[in-house]
């Protein structure tokens, strides 16, 4: 049967490469303006919408030609660009039927605008029989699966999801006869590749077309599934900052997919460092294998190591897991070997005492308490050791019994033979599990000493940290310091969870790693400066957990995520004050107070410890620097006035460096080796070498005759250190009316003298208070004024009992009380007596000597109540040169017990029970008039 093929000549619209229009499909593409003009002319001259021949271009071996097959098409839309814009015309065509270009047309490689015409052949629609139902069904199944997958993947866009679902529904409803036409339309929307579309365009047979489309749909489906896999491999919760991480994860997911397709290709990442990584990984795995067997850390580390092997090195997760494993394997999980510290040695206590003596001068009470503490620690360790021996014995007996039982049950020979061939475990492995668990117990117990936690409280530089170091040395354990000052984030203590970017373990895990042992001495420095509960968590609550012996056996660091046993750690805390430490934290500690040093103690510390230390650090020997006793005293009293010895050490360092400069100039001038000792013969006055104390540089070295004098006299200090810092303060402390010296303890735990200043200003009889005062101290001031007003007549301030001393007929005044160093917050009742004296001094015109300092709370009845911090305050007064101190009567015992004898003998203490006694002591007995007791009407009944 011959088929007559219809031919026609149609205007040609060549489709830019790689566009292809299929029948029943739509395509929008830009066209040049010259072609657009021709189309418009064609449109205008036609009665109906003209039919065009839309033919794609194909590329073959570098040349572009018109394809043999195309479609007839009608214009669906034509969009003109906006005026004066560079945008092109947009043409939308709807494909109708397949056409084939005749041989003469096909040869037309130049299908350039404006509008050429081609002769096309129209294949008849019934040229082929309709497709078989199973082919149609296969097509429909593939199409619906793909469309449903698209609908699923478009979960974020409801509109898209609905349109995919609608198309799937249309496919489902389409009958057998229209399936081939539908296939053309579907292929255009599922994004089939260019060769597939081209092949489809030239396939006339509906069955073949359907089969081809089914194949294309299945291919698209697997691409969609792979894309989804890649997409899900990427953590969707990643933030913007993690862009790099996101891209690496995508890359890794793609690599993983490629690896699956090409299993042999190992260097898909193109890094070339695979071998190196493998080596590191092996080392890490070896460290994992070295972890104590049967422990949780071993189990976790092994799991993570296996996981690490599966994660490609380019994946960010690889680095995270590796870092985690590095930490896990770096922590000292194994219990310290027996005898690794000196605790159980018979000479431990004697050695510890001599260690403390060797490192610190004075601090007798502190050392005594520390020795008691170490004795307790040792005793507990010995008891635990004894228990360990007992348990070991019991274990041995249990083991023997178990072996005997075993022997009774089995034939000895057979059982031994079986053991030899490995068919049954050796007898000791048959011991009931409870016994084997006990076997691990005593070892742990012996180490879990649960010593009390020491808390050293005192001003800076009083030796808190160095006492901690001495304890570690005495115990033969490593020492680590954890600075807690300013820790606001709980995560700094507990670590960050691993999900957190740049996460890491907390301070305790870090310290254990550095210590390299599970039983170090950990010094928790500045525990009083730990932040309280805030939006970063509660660091002090986390500290509580660390320090609680009941909980720290299994301390949970969020990063490590395996319980860490901190029970073997010896904790020593330091603080400047107890005021800011949470009471539960204080409860867990044994508080040891260090109040500061006397002048004598400082001189001894300087001579025995600080000067030798500074001299060695400078590279000189002790023969090169000789600070005389008066010079040291001057440094202690005139250049440093602190409770501790830190500034003293710095100042001595300054003196030693000055001498080092002199010595260098001396040896340079004489060509001597710097290590040579200064000879007394060659010693000449050091003034012959001029050194500028401002910058410490030698301004003019003298000639070779210049000598070097190692002796530093008190008179040399001004040249070396400049003017005394406290000169001005001393001059300022002359007797003035209205000014009295009180005693305070600063926030750093240091005792100081502090002036209470008062002046009278014209006013209305009010009290004005300044100096960052808290509520309690304000009340004290009001109390003081009330007392003075009540006793104004007795003190001769007013002439009548009923008269207000601030509202005299000839002078209405306000009293202004000020406590300098206004930036510092002040509170507490202990300035009561000083305030009374200041007001009395102001109103009577009598002065209190500046060498008298006082502290004490007053009551409305005029009693003086005891206050705290006596030792610190008295030491503060001693440092400031106040040789007379007025204290509450009830504080006598504090002076007796706490104040060093050296200070006691140099200070005159006046213990007062009443305000009147305070006034007598401050102004001198009889210097203030006293007209009898207060008026009965204003006498308090309290
Ligand atoms: N009694 C002492 N004998 C010898 N040296 C001492 C004594 N007290 C303190 N020192 C020395 O003073 C210096 C400062 O001491 P340390 O660092 O222990 O002070 P601290 O109380 O911990 O201060 P902070 O509260 O500022 O941490 C150290 O060099 C220390 O050796």
From TrEMBL:
SUPFAM superfamilies: P-loop containing nucleoside triphosphate hydrolases, PUA domain-like, Ribosomal protein S5 domain 2-like. The keyword Transmembrane helix does not apply. Keywords: ATP-binding, Coiled coil, Hydrolase, Nucleotide-binding, Protease, Serine protease. Residues 734-925 form the Lon proteolytic domain. InterPro entries: AAA+_ATPase (IPR003593), ATPase_AAA_core (IPR003959), Lon_bac/euk-typ (IPR004815), Lon_lid (IPR054594), Lon_proteolytic (IPR008269), Lon_Prtase (IPR027065), Lon_prtase_N (IPR003111), P-loop_NTPase (IPR027417). It catalyses: Hydrolysis of proteins in presence of ATP. ATP binds at residues 458-465. One of its GO terms (molecular function) is ATP binding. The keyword Nucleus does not apply. One of its GO terms (biological process) is protein catabolic process. Residues 10-221 form the Lon N-terminal domain. Residues 382-409 form a coiled coil. The active site is at 830, 873. It is an enzyme of class 3 (hydrolase). Its EC number is 3.4.21.-. Belongs to the peptidase S16 family. This is Lon protease homolog. It comes from Russula ochroleuca.
